[in-house]
Amino acid sequence: MAFTFSDADLEHIGTVLGIHAKHEGSVARFELLNEANARRIVLEINRQITLPPLVADDEPPNLVSVYAANSFLQLQGCTSFIASEELGEVIFFAKRGGVANGLVVEREAGCSLYANVDEQLLSTDFTQLPPELIMSSVVLSIFDDIG
Length: 147
Known about the structure:
With 147 residues, the protein is mostly beta strands. It is built from two helices and nine strands. The chain has helices spanning 7-17, 131-141, and strands at residues 22-24, 27-34, 39-46, 63-68, 72-76, 80-84, 89-96, 99-106, 111-118. Strands 1-2-3-4-5 form a five-stranded antiparallel beta sheet, covered by helices on one side. A hairpin with a 2-residue loop joins β1 and β2 (27-34). The relative contact order is 0.16.
């Protein structure tokens, strides 16, 4: 069965990010503001995207989007997440067809996207990688054993 965000998952994400979600239908919206650094982002988690018949039945219906002043990031088919209170961040993960993607959202209204990372890099010896590939491989490696 495909992963879907539960109400408890959304509450945990809100706790880690330090803000309560605003709910509208299947969408949970978190508005993050860091006045000290003049940063503001909006995280939206949509739990019930209706997919066309051509898309695989096991495709997770989760759509995670981040709106920022100068950018828009989107992670389709989110398969899992990890929310860390110690780090103050949530990492959303999508894995399909030998490729991993991750979207990191920080409590301080920051975010990072790692896209199209070869799954083999998640379990490799990081010291053997070129510097340009180390960060994405380290961040996403925590999902190596998770679907």
